[in-house]
Structure formats: C-alpha cells, structure tokens
Amino acid sequence: MKFSKRLERFPDEIFASLNKKKLEMEKEGRKIYNLSVGTPDFETAPHIKNALIEAAKEQDNWKYSLRDTPEMLEAVCSYYKKRFDVDITPDMVCSCNGSQEGIGHIGLVLCDEGDTVLLPSPCYPVFIASANMAGAKPFYYPMTDEAGYLPRLSDIPEEVARQAVYMIVSLPSNPTGSVAKEGIYEEIITFAKKYDILIIHDNAYSDIIFDGEVGGSFLKHPGAKDVGVEFFSLSKSFNMTGARVSFCIGRKDVIAAFRKLREQIDFGMFYPIQKAAVAALTGPLDMVRKQCTDYEARRNELCGGLRKIGWDLPDSHGSMFVWAPVPKGFGDSFSFCMELMERTGVICTPGASFGPLGEGYIRMALVLEPEEIRKAVEAIDESGILR
Questions:
Q1: Which fold has domain 5-43+287-383?
Q2: Which of 103, 126, 270, 371 has a CA 20 to 30 Å removed from the CA of 134?
Q3: pLDDT at 300 > cutoff 90
Q4: Is the per-residue pLDDT at 15 higher than 80?
Q5: CA–CA dist 204, 320 (Å, integer)
Q6: Cis peptide preceding 120, ω within 30 of 0
C-alpha cells in the first residue's frame, strides 16, 4: 500500500510513546502522576449535562443538524457581550468540533501550496499541523523567556511579513503560560494592517489567568474585527473537552469561507451538544471563576514545590500548563521525560513537541489536585533526579 506524501509532513505522535511507557508502568503496579495531557479533571456543571440529556430524549434531535441553530449563534453573541464586552453578529460565528479541528482546517481555507504563515515557537502542535496540511511554509517567530514568552514583531523580517498570509497568536499561551500585556494586541493589529495579514487568535484559556489578571478577547481591540478571527472553546472553561465545542468568530468573509469548507466535510454539530453549548453560554459563571482559583492553587503547589527542591522554573501566568526548563545535566527533552517517568512516575510532555524552540523544556499540566501534586513533587525529590 502506498500512502500520500502529505503524511510525511507530520512527525510521529509523541503521546503514543509516553502512553506505551505509562501502560507498562501501570502493569507493574507503579504509582503514576500524569501531568502530560491537558484534560480537565473538574466536573462539568449539572445544568450543562441536563441540557444535553433532555435534548437527547427528543428523536428529532438525532437527525443531521446541517447548521448551527439560531439559538446557539445568539447564545455565542450574548456571551461575547456579557463576558468580553464585544459586539458580534451571528454571521460572524461558525462552530467547529473543537479548536483543534478548527485550527487544523483553517489553513486549507486561507492558503495555497507554498504560502508563508507566521507561527509562534513554542506553540501548540496543531498550529504546525494546519500549515502542513495546507502545504504552507511556516516562519516561526520566537516566544522567548527574555521577551516574557510574548510575540516580538521586530523578530519578523519585513520580507517575510510581506509574504505572510496569516499569523497565529495564542494568549494565554499553551505551552508557555504567558498572558497578553497592555498594548500587545494593538501592536499586532497595526502590524496586520500594514502587511495585509490575517490574525488567528487561539483564545482557549481566557478563563484561566492568575495573579488577579482577567482574560479578554482579541476582538475587543479596535480594528481586530477587520484583520482577524478568534477561536473560542468551551472545553477548558466549562470542562466539555469530549463534547468538542468551539467557535471561529470574527471577520465575516473569513467566517463565510470557513463555513463553506466545513459544509464539505461535516453535517453539523449534534443537536443535544448544541443545547449543552447554549446552557453553558447562557448559564452562571461562578463555577468558572472558582475553577480559575483552583487552577491557581495547583500552579502555586507545583511551581513553588519544585523550586523548593531545586528545580529553577518560573510561575505560569495563565492556561492550565507550566513550562519548565530541562534541569541542567540532562540531554534532550524527550530523554529527560522518559527518565523522569521511570524514576518518579511523573509524566510530562517533551518541549520538542511544541516546535523548534520547544527543545530544552517540558510542559506539565495542572490536572491533579494539590495533594496529588504535592506527592508528585515529593516523588521527584526522593528520586534524587535533581541532585
């Protein structure tokens, strides 16, 4: 069997190797602390579950939906006004089966083979996969510790900017945990207008920001709707990862083109899931705020605990991840993660999975209760791996 050359653009999935090792250790009865995959462990709110259950009882809801219901589109618009003070209309919204799928496909909407796109590095892997699927050439703009893991537009050569079709921005950032600072979006909007670049903002973690900061929307900033779209997800804020509910929101012609592509490959979101989305978007947000406080407590336990035992790493400022340098004396990030797992039972993700500048770091997800995080830190300390 001969397979498409397109598949050669994608590296082997790193999580498969980690999971294989994890299963081997579990068979041996080893204690595991899995900080690798960013799947929330908080409970989905009862009113969201009940909306899905009640909708699933109606036989008509088991047919192809073929569209985003007006009720759901209006709920997105109302939520954006309530939560972000952003005015949008239903023709500025299109659903997708999670931001992973949406971002994965948007390159096919915007690019021809050989086009240039601007991606952060390190970045979430689907940003790279989307460019690869579209046959685009990524230019990685660095997100470095020295720059607070924020975009520094002066690092993008003018000849590259003139060729670029789109630029992905992700704040709060997965994997680095950096959050937007005052003026950064205005700089990006000015840059986009100057070079006729579309901005794609991944806003999956707007409700997980620490130290008194409040998350917002890229679309709130003047001119953003002219130059960009934003992916907004219900996965992390409302613990709906398995339901796969996300929205591409913003510039109308881009949304129309994105919808046209989706209509070729999808028959619409399952009606009961749309009902659950409406319940989430129109319901109370107190549990979302409480959850952010809980994530911050986990961040404090992990980062503070690791610093006490000699691992020099900064606090994450947002998202559900911590970005840590590989301790001195070790080789690449993958070999360190494998040794860490073998000696302590703590599973992390190698930074090499997140693009060219990810090597030398690892990502840890805040998906365990503080007590379990404390035990993971103790396991690392007792193993002597840092000494």
A1: Aspartate Aminotransferase, domain 1 (3.90.1150)
A2: 270
A3: yes
A4: no
A5: 10
A6: no
